[in-house]
Amino acid sequence: MMTKTMGTTHAPVMDPSAMPAVTAREMMVRNLITLDPAMDALEALDVLLRNRISGAPVVDEDGKFLGIFSEKSCMRFVVSMAYDGMPSTDVISLIDADPPTIGEETDLLTIAQTFLNAACRRLPVLDENHRLRGQISRRDVMRAVRSHLNAPKKTNTASGLFFSAILSSEERRV
Predict the structure, then answer these.
(1) Taxonomically, which superkingdom (predicted)?
(2) Is residue 56 a contact partner of residue 72, using CB atoms and an 8 Å limit?
């Protein structure tokens, strides 16, 4: 159920104990396509298109995270190149250098809330030295939550006994 307050739609407050105890480290994808900051922007766009991805992390030679190069971040540039004949540039000049990021120990609820609060498709997972360790997509979060919804639920013994008593009385009527 969604609530609406002064024109803003809000999701209901989630009970943290209802969410599975999963961290970014357990959910993240580690085998990522990354881009070099000096790479030509058109070559980087070709990498995105060839791999059918909407963006990729940009890291330096030490694996330090510099930002995200995405279709969104380079669309204006590519359109200007096509119509105005602008020369190409390097990836570093087109990245989002301050996207939301998370740490390896970030819990599932915090990750979900970060996605709800930020207009992004992916969250880079960084270590304490700002090195890229992995990435989590909105789909990864949905998959984790969905698998939690499929997990067997603990039932209250009293309600379980009540339910079985109802079934027993109905069975006797048949």
Answers:
(1) Bacteria
(2) no
Do residues 32 and 140 lie in contact, with contact meaning Cβ atoms separated by under 8 Å? no
Tell me the helix, strand and coil percentages in the chain, rounded to 5: 45, 20, 35
Residue 96 φ then ψ, to 5°: -85, 105
Per-domain residue ranges of the chain: 20-152
Which CATH topology does 20-152 take?
Answer: CBS-domain (3.10.580)
DSSP 14-68: P-GGGS---BHHHH-B-S---B-TTSBHHHHHHHHHHHT-SEEEEE-TT-BEEEE
56 contacts 47 by C-beta, under 8 angstroms: yes
Residues sharing a CB contact under 8 Å with residue 74, sequence separation 6 or more, in sequence order: 41, 44, 45, 94
Task: Return d(Cα 123, Cα 141) in angstroms, integer.
Answer: 11
> pLDDT tens-digit profile of 46-90?
999 999 999 999 999 999 999 999 998 888 888 888 888 777 789
Taking 70 as the threshold, does the pLDDT of residue 17 lie above it? no
Whole-model pTM?
0.72
158, 54 Cβ separation under 8 angstroms: no
